[in-house]
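Subject: Cache domain-containing protein

B.,
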Amino acid sequence: MTVNTPLEGQATARLRALALATLALTICAIGIYCWRLEVSTTHLQHDTQRQVEQRVSTLAGAVAGQTEAMIQLVDFALQHLCDEYEDGRSIANDARSIFHNFSADTVKNIEVIDADGYRSWSSSGAPTHTYLGEREYFRVLRNSTDDQLFISHPVWDRATGTWLIHLSRPIQRQGKFVGVMVVALSPRYFADSHNSLDPHPQNVISLFRSDGAYLARTPNLTTALGKTVPAS
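Prediction pasted inline below.
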């Protein structure tokens, strides 16, 4: 028979108490570690979200600025063509300069439509006296008294087999509407330039008209053209 002395009983009790204390401290340490891990993960998620939001905001600002500059560049060329035509000068050399100064396959065509809606000149050599008065940009500019830039919906051009966006301005002589000057652009003018800002494969950059119609998108440009999203 084994008989525990009082001292041995006290030692056993102390060992049990120490074991319980160690277990309690271990559980507490694990709890603190888990809490700190959760806090750290939350902070990391918030920091990542802030970085993403900042990157998106920066990219959106860059896209907006670049788009505005690109449109202004085309509009400057349009206004020059209108001024030359209004003064009765040939615009053939000016048109060639525009094709030369823009990147390849950006400007697809330059046309003049007379006051009655008929094509009177085309850089592509397309037949004159073809009626184009039903086109959106002609109807809008003919019925407006403002000298304004109009950007059309993308339209599928059967002659070239490509999508085109028409930027146009009214031609006026002494305040009288005498026709429309049109520059036809490839939507890739916008899409490729936007993609060059930050060519990350997961980036999606879209350009819309005010009515929600796609003007450009990267990636999947051709699948977006001709479609609209609800206008905001």
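Residues 68-188 form a domain with the Beta-Lactamase fold (CATH 3.30.450.20).

T.
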